[in-house]
Amino acid sequence: GLNPDGTPHDPDASFFTLWGGIAGVQTTLTLLLDAGYHQRGLQLEALAALTATNPAARFGLNGRKGALGVGLDADLTLVDLGASCTLAAGDLHDRHRLNPYLGRNLRGQVRQTIRRGVPIMHNGRMIATGGGRLVEGERVTR
How far from each other are the two terminal CA atoms of the chain, in whole angstroms? Predict the structure, then answer.
């Protein structure tokens, strides 16, 4: 059953042992590329701001995340703008195997993800596990 907060996890679990995640995070960039860049002409600079620069600023991570530069963490996503793929449930890495875009052909495909300079995903396949770390930002107020 679900917990009072609506989530299917052990209410005594810690942040680091929860199984979940946010359904759809894996497909966010591909969907933005398909709908925003290919269909509506969203500039790639605006897409980078939506997915990297603005979130880093919002959570106070400007010193290390959200931009490219000497001394920053070298978190990169390499995208093939000309490729397309049909989203299948077997492609999803989260535990939520439901996605409203299953079966849809999407233009633009993530080819490689690099975390702190080390490739962790290549052509849809995880090639490294672990190595993540908690990143604390500056306190940001609205």
Answer: 36
